[in-house]
Write a structure and sequence with these properties.
alpha/beta; 2 domains; 6-stranded mixed beta sheet; 9 helices; 6 strands; globular
């Protein structure tokens, strides 16, 4: 089990190898970042986008949250962490592509499917419940077609990607950039057990990456 002391030990290895062997790269990165791709992924400890996509520091701008969700555009109430990161990526960094990556065995999807935290208070699952209610309509569609079971859970994992992409397009600056050809949106789903990345096509269906 990795604990904080293990992380500090890992930092020592990084300083000795990763940083020391690429000092020129780190010196360049210290001057600023210019990633071309933003990845919106789940917070799940098993699905690190940098590892899945084999990228180096500075190459992808990453936002991670429960069930890789993007809320719809809104200006009132609350804090808007995903929206702020999205705004920064599109309007300031000028990323050219956004990838929404879902994954198998997603706890957020399981909670949305089972209603595990419904009616819970903050601190007891209430924050989770209010976040994943973004999937309520998708869950209803999925269960109407697949019932409740493994097929339904998998279908809802794919729906998290479609829902997030739909919500991305509710942001005016995303729509504008996409319409002008400055931004492309992609969907993906990572199968943890098989280690296979599935990519969403223009028809909204997923197929293994080649």
């Amino acid at each position: 089990m990795t604990v904080f002391t293990d992380l500090v030990a890992g930092y020592g290895r990084f300083r000795e190898h990763g940083w020391a062997e690429e000092r020129e790269r780190w010196a360049t990165l210290a001057q600023g970042q210019s990633p071309k791709v933003m990845v919106i992924a789940c917070s799940d400890s098993r699905t690190d986008p940098a590892m899945v996509f084999d990228t180096s520091p500075g190459e992808i701008f990453v936002v991670r949250n429960v069930a890789n969700l993007v809320p719809p555009f809104e200006t009132g109430g609350g804090r808007h962490g995903v929206s702020a990161a999205l705004e920064f990526a599109v309007t300031q960094l000028k990323v050219e592509e956004i990838v929404v990556m879902g994954h198998g065995s997603c706890g957020g999807v399981h909670a949305a499917m089972t209603g595990r935290f419904a009616q819970a208070d903050p601190g007891e699952g209430g924050f989770i419940a209010h976040w994943i209610d973004l999937l309520d309509a998708a869950r209803d569609r999925v269960t109407a077609e697949h019932g409740i079971g493994e097929d339904a859970v998998h279908a809802l994992e794919l729906e998290t990607v479609r829902v997030s992409i739909t919500n991305l397009r509710s942001f005016p600056f995303v729509r504008e950039a996409e319409a002008e050809g400055r931004l492309t949106l992609h969907g993906a789903w990572f199968a943890i057990k098989e280690g296979v990345l599935w990519v969403m096509g223009e028809d909204g269906e997923f197929a293994p990456a080649v």
